[in-house]
Amino acid sequence: MPEVLPSKNGDLNGRSEPTSTSSGSSPLITAGSFYDSFGEDIRDVLDLATWRIGADMSREYSRIEREVREAVVTESSFQTKVRAKVFPRLKARDNAPKNAGKHDADRKLIEKIHQEFLFAKGGIEACDGSIHIHDALPLTIYQMGISLVSYQGNQGTWCQRLFRRDLQEDGSDRIEEVIAALERRQQRGESDGMGGLAQKALLDYAERAILLQNSNACWRMGHGNPITYELLTGGDCLELMVEATNVLRQLIEGYQKFVFVGHEPKDRWLYTIAQALQPMEFAIVHTLDERLEHWLQQNRYAAEAKKVMWDDEEIWAYEWIPRVIREVASQVVVGLFRATPVALAQMFYAHVDHADYAAHMVLADSVLQEHRGCPMLLDLARNTCDSVFGDSLERITAAAYAAAGAPWRYVNHRSSRG
Prior knowledge:
By secondary structure, the chain is of the alpha+beta class. The protein has a domain at about 100-390. About 45% of the residues lie in helices and about 20% in strands. The protein is built from 14 helices and eleven strands. It has helices at about 30-40, 40-45, 55-90, 105-120, 175-190, 195-215, 230-235, 240-255, 270-275, 290, 320-330, 355-365, 375-390, 390-405; strands at about 100-105, 125-135, 140-150, 155-165, 220-225, 260, 280-285, 305-310, 315, 330-340, 345-350. The strands form two sheets. A nine-stranded mixed beta sheet has the order 1-7-10-11-6-5-2-3-4, sandwiched between helices. The protein has a two-stranded antiparallel ribbon with strand order 8-9. Helix 4 (about 105-120) crosses helix 12 (about 355-365) and helix 6 packs parallel to helix 8. The longest helix is centred in the first third of the chain and has 34 residues, at about 55-90. It is globular. The chain starts with about 30 loop residues before the first helix and ends in a 15-residue tail after the last helix. Residues about 5-25 and about 415-418 have low confidence and may be disordered.
């Protein structure tokens, strides 16, 4: 193990993504780096004589079994080193949150949460959402569905549908109008920014707004990172950025008793730390502003000669994102937990002043699913959302197209296959 923790290129001290080369492109893969990664000479791999016949599965099973066994042994050995060398350094880092480090869960507190809080009325509610898209040439429909649940039952479902048409009937048949319509469709096919906005930013906003405004529980649980890239940037919509981050500020700075749970970390370095945790352990690694730090380099809204209100202060639009990261994201900690021996470790986000209790909350709910090791209440929220909305959009639109005299004309051929 190195004597110091990795640097800020996607490590314990900062960024969640690797830096690119100075030219902005990914580094070239050399024959040497290929061999280091796979233990194979690239020239041998390109030689079809070394490829095995597909029917020769017995040899492949043996090889896969050997590779998996060796990889598990090596990884387990490395996790022991992580526990010995890295865990003690988490709380000694510069700018580490006050509760940084690896912690053992308090079993009595877990039991108390089970008995007095998790299943009690008003204890905790979870929110999750889904989006379904009907995309056809005449019309695209975005259906966003949100559910709010507790162990006492469904607390509500909400739905929003956005209808997008490239063509609007204006009675004109001028060639300029026809060409303009074709150009709009070409631009939409190349870069559908409004589609991305509808699919992610609005859904993320609605989930957090419902948690804040419609939940009556003491604790609020959500899915993923509380400050997503789409929310922070507003999906390139200034008005959405301001409104969405104002909701985030109320939830994070004001309410504070929230916990968001992601799946296993995508960052390999963070995933390595997570997998080194034992059952009923959790770790506080860093604050969320460190994870979002590299987003500052994008200079979003730099061309906008417009000011927006931050409380009673008027600031330039390009100053908004850096301030959210500096003042709001810095109040959120990034943590890891493992609930059971057989499940993957998970990531969670909580307010720095309530992170310890938040970790116990997600552990208490996650031990109810030994094979998954993630909060069952979040799964309940997602399943409720799917059962309420599910394939309803396709059924409704199919009936509408039939009524319009075009039952199959705009149906994707793959979606019509059994």
